Amino acid sequence: MKLVRFGDAGVERPGLIDDSGRVRDLSSEVPELSGAILGPASIQRLRALPVDGLPLVPGNPRLGPCVAGTGKFVCVGLNYLDHVRETGAAVPSEPVLFMKATSAITGPNDPIVMPPGSTKIDWEVELGVVIGSAAKNVGAQEALAHVAGYCIVNDVSERAWQLERAGQWVKGKSADTFGPIGPWLVTADEVPDPHALGLWLSVNGAMRQNSNTDQMIFHVDTLVAYISTFMSLQPGDIISTGTPPGVGLGAKPPSYLNRGDVVRLGIAGLGEQCQTVL
Questions:
Q1: Residues of the chain where predicted confidence (pLDDT) is lower than 70
Q2: Are 180 and 64 in contact (CB under 8 A)?
Q3: How far apart (Å, rounded) are the C-alpha atoms in residues 272 and 21?
Q4: Alpha carbons 176 and 225: distance in angstroms, whole number
Q5: Is the bond into 183 cis (omega within 30 degrees of 0)?
Q6: Rounded distance, CA 13 to CA 168, Å?
Q7: Burial class of residue 119 (count of CB atoms within 10 Å of its CB; 0-12, 13-18, 19+)
Q8: What residues are paired with 55 via a beta bridge?
Q9: Which of 139, 181, 225, 272 has the smallest count of CB within 10 Å of its CB?
Q10: Which of 70, 174, 195, 61 is nearest to 131 (CA)?
């Protein structure tokens, strides 16, 4: 099942994508696609609905962030071996964690807005994991049971702020529009193996990242279990699982986004995003 939120920013409505790729309105069934309806029982109820009976949304509506009310946006750094090598960092012995402000979250096709003073804006296609039921101190063997589904994340980064301004990475990760998610939340039953998904990103038509989630150092079950030992994961929380090689920081010389650039990215089975830099 592919769950979406559609409509103008701030007034999105819940929906789903039918077998023909059209948006169906779910607002008569659930008030919002937030953590409260992402548990197994709620997902099972939505899956049982007669999709053809749901109102068809006309035209080509804007798609908003596929999850509302996210409490935590937890990111994993240096989780693809080739990406570690291109940055010159050491291979981590355990997951590298940082946070991204939830105010960075935008729709999958909304523009990336360069904040004042930014000079090194970079791209990062990543597999996003959306939590469906609370997880605290869970083991890896039970971790995937707490996952509602998966989505695409573009972990947009301002490298000068991240690496040259001292302190935590969160400063370079959290500007408004630096967290496009979606287009859909694909429920976990439709992603039997999250570690066998091709993912890619292009800038102005030139392919920059082209890899597969099978290259992850730490898998999704390990990440959910590991993070849950430091903080409880709540329904609607997002884990962004790291990016493969091909980021602008790793180019020789480094290459960053400029006004007017068009970023496209996708993950097999999870759809595509497209952002213009403003």
A1: none
A2: no
A3: 13
A4: 29
A5: yes
A6: 35
A7: exposed
A8: none
A9: 139
A10: 70
CA distance linking residue 257 with residue 118, whole number of Å? 10
What is the domain partition of the chain in residue ranges? Answer: 2-53, 73-276
From CA 90, how far away is CA 76, in angstroms rounded? 15
Which residue's entry shows tokens 């749901």? 54
What's the CATH fold of domain 73-276? Fumarylacetoacetate hydrolase; domain 2 (3.90.850)
pLDDT, tens only, 56-68: 999 999 999 999 9
Could you tell me if 128 and 151 are in contact, meaning their C-beta atoms sit under 8 angstroms apart?
Answer: yes
How would you classify residue 171: left for phi > 0, otherwise alpha for psi between -120 and 50, otherwise beta? alpha
**pLDDT digits over 199-209, tens only?**
999 999 999 99
Torsion of CA 74, 77, 82, 85, to 10 degrees: 180
Q: Which one-letter DSSP state was computed for residue 41?
A: H
DSSP state of 253: S
Retrieve residue 196's tokens. Answer: 């066998």
H-only helix segments in 109-219: 140-143, 159-163
Residue 83 main-chain phi, psi, to 5 deg: -70, -40
Phi, psi of 156 (to 5 degrees): -65, 140
In a 3-state reduction of DSSP, which class is residue 169? helix
